[in-house]
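WARN retry 2 of 3 for item q-0093 after timeout on previous attempt; input resubmitted unchanged.
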Amino acid sequence: MDLERLITLIVKTVVEELVRQGVIQGTTPAAPASRPMTEKGKRRVVTARMVLDAAAAGRSTLDVPVGSLITPLARDTAKEKGIAIRIGSE
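OK item q-0093 returned
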């Protein structure tokens, strides 16, 4: 099993368990992990890649919708790059 498939399996298993325990709502996304879900009614996952893209574009803020899930690595990367994550925008 290659590393990417192993990581995908681990993430899927963790998300399913968090849903089962009621920690998060929803279902396991079918979309690739590199693309956050943005359909209406689904949570958006804010990743470190999104923060790095904002920094590369010269932005000082990253606007995300209410209810977005921000990964710990995304928070750390935003702090390191001086990017403010502003919650409450579409």
